[in-house]
């Protein structure tokens, strides 16, 4: 059985890696006034962060179901099944779009998978699925493996302020932090598919240190892990942080990724994230 792997643009998997692993990507969009741009196709992260300096913050939109059905039908000419991995259903209807489209197409079996997270941590699932598909594993075996990954996947992120998340309705329990927005760098995470506050921390430096402390709790077992630093237009800061972590944790494989236009719209420039999974 030949299995295709599909994800959406919010996994922010570099194009070259997508092509090497034969990963198919459905883009979400950002909308500036009357102009709509598909992220990772028509607008890069760098262009986005430049645009928002001069324009009002955009809105975002999920892919139309028709784009999913069109892609699935195209894949059915070559594949027997599709594993379709998407950002958390608690913050976007993209996963549901894949479910709906999967029920509409014939000649191909669609296995939608809710990552319950986003960005390159979502990408960990996608890359694993693509490598297993290339190795000839069945869709059921692939789903079983990525479900197993959920047990060890962790991700935390901090934002410079919560106004974007509140405005976009992506943050649950936001009321608890109102009034102290200026005093804290809230550490956030996904819980039950939603973005919720994890801890209130006073400074950016302390928030980043707290993420590393949480990381240490998992990796001190000595088992092999891979980790990703995710930044919102703070590449230099991410590189410095990566070098520090590589020196401290030589047995962990680190990479750098970014919050692209859609997720960047909700987090704002300056956000930093840190995610990891057992290899």
From TrEMBL:
<protein>
    <submittedName>
        <fullName>DegV domain-containing protein</fullName>
    </submittedName>
</protein>
<dbReference type="InterPro" id="IPR043168">
    <property type="entry name" value="DegV_C"/>
</dbReference>
<dbReference type="InterPro" id="IPR003797">
    <property type="entry name" value="DegV"/>
</dbReference>
<dbReference type="GO" id="GO:0008289">
    <property type="term" value="F:lipid binding"/>
</dbReference>
<dbReference type="InterPro" id="IPR050270">
    <property type="entry name" value="DegV_domain_contain"/>
</dbReference>
<keyword id="KW-0446">Lipid-binding</keyword>
<dbReference type="Pfam" id="PF02645">
    <property type="entry name" value="DegV"/>
</dbReference>
